[in-house]
Amino acid sequence: MIFARFMAIYGHKFKSCFETQDEIRIAKREWALSLGGYTEAELVSAIDYCKEHSAWMPTISEFLKVLRNLTGDHGLPVAKHAYEEACMHSEHASKHQWTHPAIYHAGKATGWFRLRTEDEAQVFTDFRYNYDVICRRVRAGERLDNPVPVALPDQSDNSLFEFIQAWGKEHQLKPEVASTWLFYLTKPKGSMVRKRFQQQAQVEATAMGIELPDDYQ
Questions:
Q1: Of 31, 133, 178, 204, which residue is most buried, by most CB within 10 angstroms?
Q2: pTM over cut 0.70
Q3: pLDDT tens digits, residue range 13-64?
């Protein structure tokens, strides 16, 4: 929808931004990833603003600035980043200091167990829908309650909890770093979601010369 409108509005100026269809396809994907969390009505308003105020198609950063000026950013991260944070802290959601309360409420509506156990292809669409609904409420001026932290840590799996603590001390890591890196151990063995979180954590660990365990005893 966005590129069709831009093509109609900017004509040959739009076409001059891209030399091949591959470039257009890649650009569409990047725009889609960057604009997660905004409704169609908000996007239409931003496009209309650009039509009136810009002689050239805006860049992603320029378009995001227009969106935030029109709707108010309210500290809301894009849907993809919100989803990643919800997955990373779904095990202890009530203890995490969320970037924005909207992420917590979207995670709760989607289901913490689903976020822990299902692959992104299965659950992201539902999370994004819930997050979009909550973002609209925030942008409309509604205030969301912050989750109330629990007094004691949830140690439903004491052996894993103790392993992560011991492993972190062994590698001289802060507890929160060890918990974040080894979060994948809470996922079902052999699942794609476990593999994905392990790969992401290993990138950071490799930079410090640390090899993450495949499992715990």
A1: 178
A2: no
A3: 888 888 788 888 888 888 888 887 677 888 888 899 999 998 899 998 899 8
The two structure tokens encoding residue 104: 């917590």
Token digits for 31? 């725009």
Spatial distance between the Cα atoms of 164 and 175, rounded to a whole number of angstroms: 8
Mean pLDDT lowest among 66-75, 120-129, 148-157: 148-157
Query: Which of 203, 175, 197 lies closest to 184 in space, CA to CA?
Result: 197
Instruction: Using the structure block, give the residue that is written with the tokens 């994905």.
Output: 196
Q: Show me where the domains of the chain are located.
A: 2-71, 79-139, 158-207
* CA pair distance 191, 182, nearest whole angstrom: 15
Residue pair 134/106 in contact by the 8 Å Cβ criterion = yes
pLDDT for the residue numbered 78: 77
185 within 8 A of 216, measured Cβ to Cβ: yes
Do the Cβ atoms of 201 and 180 come closer than 8 Å? yes
Environment class of 14 (CB within 10 Å of its CB; exposed 0-12, middle 13-18, buried 19+): middle
3-state helix, strand, coil in the chain (%, to 5): 65, 0, 35
